[in-house]
Amino acid sequence: MAVQSSFSIENDKYDDDGSIKRTGTWMTASAHIVTAVIGSGVLSLAWAVAQLGWIGGAVTLVLFSLITLLTSLLMTNCYRYPDSVHGKRNPTYMKMVENILGGTQYKFCGLAQYTNLVGCTIGYTLTASISMVAIKKSNCFHKYGHEADCDTASYPYMAIFGIFQIFISQIPDFHELSWLSIVASVMSFSYASIGIGLSIAKIAEKGHHLETGLTGLVVGVDVTSTQKMWNTFQALGNIAFAYAFSMVFVEIQDTVKSSPPENQTMKKATVVGISVTTFFYALCGLLGYAAFGNNAPGNFLTGFGFYEPFWLVDIGNFFIIIHLVGAYQVFAQPVFSAVESWGSKRCPRSMFMTEEYNVRIPLVGTWRMNMFRLIWRTIYVIITTLVAIIFPFFNSIVGLLGAITFFPLTVYFPIEMYLTQANVAKYSSKWIGMELISGFCLIVSLVAAVGSIQGIVSELMIYKPFK
User: CA-to-CA distance for 205 and 288, rounded, in angstroms?
Assistant: First the structure.
């Protein structure tokens, strides 16, 4: 028996374009933003600040925050086109680019967006497994001492995370994940707060004194000049990745109800979401650097700068895992939706593609199953899990994802769409200012990508898989 949607109560209320009526508010949109932004990126900020120093770290955190806020606010007005309030809705990032900038830009956007969405799900699989391993190590160190050999392979934990995601991925629609985003955003607040609290406690320890500096790691003492350069580039990518959520920004706005106008609601959600995120990032990065100094670990909750209280470290890592379960879905759902829409259009009469069936699950409710969705989403999770197992390089992968994500999706397309939507005159002061911002961010992204690729190559030379 064919049905309309899955895991949902049948509802005959629809929006003007025939889609299910949207019910999101600035609070739910803010929760989606916090969930999408605060992820694995927060864990590498202490390390990134250590590479850049007090001045460079603080300035870079604030600068990336302001750029992300500016371009996000510009993009809220592009949700409807040509008029920002009464125009036609653009329900996805790619649709927005296609309608405003045209077909060529649309193809480039699609390549950039879906590469990054897939990359983030791989990164989250890796990060979740690192936190699972950290819990096991924390208990091992507590039981046998800090010098004990507690090394543990991460790939079995990546497999566990992947198996769980196979089940969660069967929730088909992005608008049905508000509850998961709210839970995940609470988790992100919690583990960021634990990391901040542990950093403060470490700073307050009697006799605590670690080497820090205005410019970070010292050439000739901590690193060579070449290492300093590569680490600086990679740190820029790490911080850029920490703010990467633009690829799901439009999909988040598409969950917001139409009254008041979506752009007004989304502007409020954007200011709240990015402000909260920046505050936590500054605390995690700067306090983490103060706690660990120039020896800050790549992941400040799993690098074992903290051993005790072991149970609090365990709780922090458990919260990271729960958060990443939700964040994985925030980034995977647009990929799922794109492939399923393409399949339905290509084979509209195929029962395999389009037919859905009621399956009664005790204590859960009615699951409306589609065979194509079941098989395709399972294969996707398996592939992303395998890639994470093959390339488990946290800081380098995070830096590369940030470099690839930041310029095209966070800066270039939002600025170009705004200039077109607002009919900004070419070579006007506003046009020149926007293009200068775009050019600066391109340079930052290129050097960050180069630094991260160098890091991956270096780690591949000594990496032995499945060990």
Answer: 14
